[in-house]
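Lecture notes, unit on protein representations.

Consider one protein chain, 274 amino acids long.
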Amino acid sequence: MAIGPDLLPRVASAMLLAPVVLFAAFIGGWPFAVMLAIAAVLVLWEWLAMTAARPGRVLLALGGGALLAALASLYSGGTLPLAAAIALIGAAALALVARGGGPARLWALGGMVYAAGVMFPAQLLRADDTLGLISLGWLLAVVWTTDIAAYFCGRLIGGPKLWPRVSPNKTWSGALGGAILATLAGVLVLRAAGIESFLSAAPVAFVVSVASQGGDLFESSMKRRFGVKDSSHLIPGHGGLMDRLDGFIVGAALALAIGLLHAPDAPARGLLIW
């Protein structure tokens, strides 16, 4: 198996970020909310920088303020519609202030939606007193296993490329292997947590895994669109937070949507109990 030059950066960034994320997720409460807030604002900063949005500092201040207000609303017991309304007001403000015409305004608005995806799903799932930690652990297991398994299955098996124009290194074997092993990881997490319907949730893990791979492809296409290699140099030698969270953002958004559709008052339960 040929190991690509990106393996060591992947391992290094995982060793740097994973313990912090897992510790904050375990504690929950305000430490977890603070971590999400920092991550969301940094992702917005990377998005605005990648898209060359102007005036950058003003847009970051407006968007960052709206993100923090929305998360504070959620943390203090506010409803999702209220928090979403705050974020949407911020997105509208970015669209109005951004310079460069229609496309630039749409990209600025999209940055708010993307950054909100860092914090809304994770905060809402973790807030469940009974299944919050389990649902977040399940989500991280599915997304992280997808990324790791897709990399190694693609390198080991090879075969036809998934979407060479957007991401020349990704293969169909990696995508399928990542989804299958991520599904197994999700099942094992629920089995270990003592959830009797662990097999019934397997299809949910599969579709969330596919969504996370879609998030990876989306960011790859975005970087090609704007001619950048990494979203930033925030993690020296390894890229930025968007490069690490692209799959999580989309996978978490779908996980939350499924949970809300299945159990509007308890999304963590709706996601896991079938």
